[in-house]
TrEMBL record, chains A, B, C, D, E:
Residue intervals passing through the bilayer: 43-62, 209-226, 232-250
Organism: Mucilaginibacter paludis DSM 18603
A GO term from the CC aspect: plasma membrane
Keyword entries, A-Z: Cell membrane, Ion transport, Membrane, Transmembrane, Transmembrane helix, Transport
Listed GO MF terms: chloride channel activity
Membrane topology of the entry: Multi-pass membrane protein
Broad class of the protein's primary localization: membrane
Family, as annotated: Belongs to the anion channel-forming bestrophin (TC 1.A.46) family.
Protein name in the entry: Bestrophin-like protein
Transmembrane helix recorded as keyword: yes
Compartments (UniProt record): Cell membrane
Keyword Cytoplasm: no
InterPro entries per record: YneE/VCCN1/2-like
Amino acid sequence: MLLKKNIPISYVFGKIKLEIALLAIYSVAVYVAHTYLNFPGVSIPIAIPSILGTIISLLLAFRSNQAYDRWWEARTLWGAIVNDSRSFARQVLTFVDNSYDDEDKRVLKERMIKRQMAWCYSLSCHLRGQNAHYCVSKYITEEEKQSIDNMNHVPLALMDQHGNDLRLLMRMGWINEYQQVAMDETLTRFSNAMGGCERIKNTVFPVTYSFYVHILVLLFVLMLPFSLIELFGVFQVPLVVAISSSFFLIEKMAIHLQDPFENKPTDTPTTAISYKIEQDLKQLLRDESPKESEPNRPVDKSTIYYIL
Amino acid sequence: MLLKKNIPISYVFGKIKLEIALLAIYSVAVYVAHTYLNFPGVSIPIAIPSILGTIISLLLAFRSNQAYDRWWEARTLWGAIVNDSRSFARQVLTFVDNSYDDEDKRVLKERMIKRQMAWCYSLSCHLRGQNAHYCVSKYITEEEKQSIDNMNHVPLALMDQHGNDLRLLMRMGWINEYQQVAMDETLTRFSNAMGGCERIKNTVFPVTYSFYVHILVLLFVLMLPFSLIELFGVFQVPLVVAISSSFFLIEKMAIHLQDPFENKPTDTPTTAISYKIEQDLKQLLRDESPKESEPNRPVDKSTIYYIL
Amino acid sequence: MLLKKNIPISYVFGKIKLEIALLAIYSVAVYVAHTYLNFPGVSIPIAIPSILGTIISLLLAFRSNQAYDRWWEARTLWGAIVNDSRSFARQVLTFVDNSYDDEDKRVLKERMIKRQMAWCYSLSCHLRGQNAHYCVSKYITEEEKQSIDNMNHVPLALMDQHGNDLRLLMRMGWINEYQQVAMDETLTRFSNAMGGCERIKNTVFPVTYSFYVHILVLLFVLMLPFSLIELFGVFQVPLVVAISSSFFLIEKMAIHLQDPFENKPTDTPTTAISYKIEQDLKQLLRDESPKESEPNRPVDKSTIYYIL
Amino acid sequence: MLLKKNIPISYVFGKIKLEIALLAIYSVAVYVAHTYLNFPGVSIPIAIPSILGTIISLLLAFRSNQAYDRWWEARTLWGAIVNDSRSFARQVLTFVDNSYDDEDKRVLKERMIKRQMAWCYSLSCHLRGQNAHYCVSKYITEEEKQSIDNMNHVPLALMDQHGNDLRLLMRMGWINEYQQVAMDETLTRFSNAMGGCERIKNTVFPVTYSFYVHILVLLFVLMLPFSLIELFGVFQVPLVVAISSSFFLIEKMAIHLQDPFENKPTDTPTTAISYKIEQDLKQLLRDESPKESEPNRPVDKSTIYYIL
Amino acid sequence: MLLKKNIPISYVFGKIKLEIALLAIYSVAVYVAHTYLNFPGVSIPIAIPSILGTIISLLLAFRSNQAYDRWWEARTLWGAIVNDSRSFARQVLTFVDNSYDDEDKRVLKERMIKRQMAWCYSLSCHLRGQNAHYCVSKYITEEEKQSIDNMNHVPLALMDQHGNDLRLLMRMGWINEYQQVAMDETLTRFSNAMGGCERIKNTVFPVTYSFYVHILVLLFVLMLPFSLIELFGVFQVPLVVAISSSFFLIEKMAIHLQDPFENKPTDTPTTAISYKIEQDLKQLLRDESPKESEPNRPVDKSTIYYIL
């Protein structure tokens, strides 16, 4: 609850500053033309814009529903990445029995878990169109870095390395064949989550629908002052601005929600989630991570604050 | 059905006391200004607020739908925790064959099942932002307590201990490799349920939507008395209060439903569900639990009563 | 299709007899007061109740949607119980190879399949708050009856016995470890279905929503005669009754659908489904069941007839 | 796209011939009474039927949504049967290694795949209340026919035989235990699809909802001519017929969609799908099926043409 | 975001050129008849078309919802094909241990992965009714080509070959029995995705619904000029065109979305997705594909641009 109270009103309205300004000018102009210039104008019965308003509400509600579903699916996919990363780490740590503290085993386990962190960051960068090679450099070894150097699809290459390490674990006899298949299923789930994110990223929301709704909203806004001027006089200006900007706001929200991987402050907080996964996996590694990485946390917070 | 009849009306309206009071004062003021002070006022045609009402109903219905979906998903996740806790206990009890009543086996089985109870309580505390270390102290051994002492994420640490015990069971030869993987899948489901709850907890419902609906409701409420005063005279006061408070009520409900882990009397009854899991697992342990823990039950009941 | 034609109209309206009577009296009273007593009354423009009607329709439609979803989920869970019971019986019969007609094997297989019937009946009773111990007595042995005697949660205890029998099958070498895990997965699905039903049973549908809709319907009904009296005169009485009782009917339907385990003639036909499962499992057991159990069938039929 | 153009308009309207005729007579009668007989009549303001129309549209839209969901679920279940039948055949063919062309293996494999065809046809007949024994006779051996002779539930009995054959394969050492369980999972999916279809078949769509909507439509239709007569004169007759028959059409569609297994030309094309499965499995068997079975295909086509 | 800005307005309107032209002519004719020819005409109160508009919006919104669901399901199925193709390749590469660089193993692995590419292209062609034999020729060996030569259902035949290769891998001892079953599960998922696409392709969207909505839209369009002429005079022409073409646009969109495999520029980009899978699998094969295949990429881009 606290989170919401902290959202500055200015942020919300900052998104539609321009629209509000134009709207205010337009409705003042209508008022002036009507009152002082005795411009006859077309007096539109209130029924037309209000019923247009009902239609727009209906379409807008359906549209935000679909945009919300895309956004929530993206969030759920990243939630699944959190879950599966933890499960994967648990499998790595408990399937490979290291009671005698074998250094080789310890190194391999750590390498796999760190690569999982790298995979999360690389997927985050990949989806946002950033250089995924750069994102993962902190978490993987030099050798791994070289082998993915000329790959286009970094997360896919890292998944492939996971698979190779599973084969290695199997060949060393550190896991049995049944455990290999169980861990391969976890990799399949990662693959599904990755593909799901790419599907949302690459599939454009049907454009005509948005376009049509936008035209109706404009039509509505243009008519509104002519309907309200007789009834409210100068008070129509704030009314027009309030009602119209509501429609614009909700339209903007749908546009933001429908593309959740566009590297805007309002999208799915993939970096923050990756950071959280890193923390959790480090806890599981019992790797007392230096507290100096804490300061990164605010990134997380601010991202959540401003989810539109 | 009985449950519902017991909900005191006062509880339902207690949520919107302030709004009702302000509404009454406002509409009386409008009545007085209009009737006795001969305040000309703006007479708003009934069409405007009533169509605004249709729009609000539509948006509110969609919004409660989405809030309801979050709430129901949270409930379903906790339902899955109940199911999986029972399945996990059944697996512990039936996979480990203890026909000769081996004390070591008995102790380990009991430890795992009690840790499962601890996990449920710790997740409940973790989600509500309470001290999870304190919640679990009744159910786990001193040794376990120490090992999770400097962990931030208690449920995750307990899951890790579950994994370690699975490895132990495997090394002792008490379960075979298939059974280890089958039980590991149950742990994966716990991990998914935990991650799902955290996802709902940490993802803010799109704020603009709520904000927009709230503004429309206020606009509607401010206009309503001016529309009804001509038709109904003084009777507009109860009408305004009744219609407006309906909108406020339904808005409040959506706000409560959309954040199901906020430690309010109306959220998902995680403590009661954890208690139920404890009872069920104790039955499976054939551990005739002392009846003095019964008195805790009312917590459960009262929580259910007041689900808004 | 036949089923529907058989539903007596009287049954449908029996649900709202009282409401219809009160409505008729009220609208006649309004007519009399208006026409003969020259009671001035408040003449309400038709716009108000008709737009209120639109709002109510919208909310009612959404609400029946959610209630329908609960009901359909309950039905689907019981459908899953049918499927899994058949699958479980098939697994018992085909995994345990009894080519040499070993009496011990035959007895154990029959015991497990009969216990599955008992589990279905016990879950049905448990959900409806009936004495589950009594429901299962026909299907399980004396020994089993004693062991569940002091258990509160009978279906859970029966599931536990299933698990024990799986362990027994495994220890006897009648199934292999892989088959044990596969059958344990079936038990997990039973556990999930059971938990899902309990979740629906124990989670109250958000009360405020129902309450709010109910208040709006009452408001609508109270206003309606005053709006129609001028236009229709005495004909307003049947119109008021017809329109209002539609709203009441649909509200009643939602209330019935949202609580599908309340032991009313209209809820999920758990007894009939359990009986169907019994028949199917008996066919699989090639146990030519005596035809004298057929007469129970009508319970099934009548239950289905009157699903509201 | 071609498919749709071929639907004769007469077919669509054939469904509501009677309603259209009655409507035309009724509205002509209203016109005659109003115009020539100077029947005063009740002039109903246009607001009432048009708002009633909005309410009906809303409820009808929700209802067709739910009916559509049932129909689509039925279609999806049969889609799953197609998929799983192919998967099952693939498993039979590739798990049982027949490199040395063992006649016994070949016969058993063919028997199982043909029984799968039989199962699809038998489920189709079972759901439509036809004699399932007759449907399967072409595909199974005499021996199998006898063993299911006194079974009520033919598809269930065939599934049981599948299970027995799996056990046989296992006992012969032709598949390993792991493969047996994997194929058993496929049988479980068949069992789930079968149970899902039965659930849809046996669960009546809530009747009150349909009933309520139907009453509202009638009320609307009866009022409509009185509202339009003043505005449109004799032109009200085609208008009344057009608008009303739209409502009737959409209502009819919902009724057809909600019961997808009623052996009408418009339901789920289970026979056509079974035929398709037969063709696909024959291709997998490399059994060059005689082209004389092709003529059955038109059944498929015509069924699809007339999906309402 | 960029993508959308690039969609030429002309493309969007190109779809409804004819409708717009007819509409303009019709409304001009109404204007001329009304104004200059003193054609009395029927003056329709604004209430009728505007409420008709609300009804149409509602039905259209529901319909586009269902069409969108079909389209999104088709997209999700192809997303699953991407995921599973990657998982399958990973399984082929990591389950078969080729540390000593055995040429036979290398060839077989490459053959299976290339056949997977072929399967994607063949499914794409099969769904669009193109010659699937032609589509796959680039990816499979001569021997494979011959064996599928007289098959109708190419993707199904390729799946069967995958199954045969799995058996071969198993017989050679290159994978163990668990791994065979795990890879068979991947084949089952391909089978499910293929069946799901065929289901969407072969199931006609309920025609009556579309038909009904279309009739209402026409009715609305025919009435609109008569309602607006009095209020707006000549300005009714652009208004009629704007509002009506919005309805036509949204109707067109629903028609396109509901049939996502019709080989139109606006359907699911199956070729582009197949190409992407090819690239990803080639990366996994570490097969530095020649850059001259890049020029094919634009096909992908343009397809995505014009998703309506």
